[in-house]
Please model this.
Amino acid sequence: MAANIPKVVLTGGIASGKSTVAAEFAKLGVPVIDTDEISRVVVQPGRPGLRHIVEQFGREILNADGTLNRKKLRELVFNDPAKRQALEKILHPAIRVEQLRLAESVGGPYQIHVVPLLAETANRHLYDRVLLVDCPREEQLQRLLARDGVTKDLAESMLAAQATREHRLSLADDVIDNSGDPSLLPAQVTRLHERYLKELAKRP
Ligand code: ADP
Model:
């Protein structure tokens, strides 16, 4: 990926607190690139990503105003591996291109790349370090219910579709404990930031 700027991949399960932690890094002036955000940009009207999705799934996948009906798409691929794979074949390269473009343009002593599904994909080699936002499954579930207003059943199946906490922990170089009050985050982030500046940013 981009030039020689070190990249820390910030990952974690759904609703574990990735965006919250990323915002803390941003406050310290670290460039943050969020692949979730990018995944929404590449399917905006006029983008090739959306055209390819319509070619694959038909115009029924659009809202009346021509935007992507994300809920319908999610439901369509949720229990259908072949459809999911077809969607990923469209989305992943489009996301990579945009991620690369941003990585080149934002600079920084190092960068934070928010990648929710790192544990489920084979992309570890693209990054210099893996930073995991960790919290117990039960708290994750409560946050997901509160944030997205989904049913408990759907929330459970969303968690079941992701890697386990243990698997994620096994991939992590560094861990942010987000099991407590969010006010405990800034000190953890500042400590890591100082370490990253020392250990990563000065690499030859
Ligand atoms: P992610 O980006 O990993 O999906 P978010 O950062 O959006 O997760 O956090 C999920 C939800 O939980 C958000 O509504 C957020 O405000 C809330 N949240 C994050 N950290 C905590 C915490 N330590 N305690 C309680 N709620 C939290």
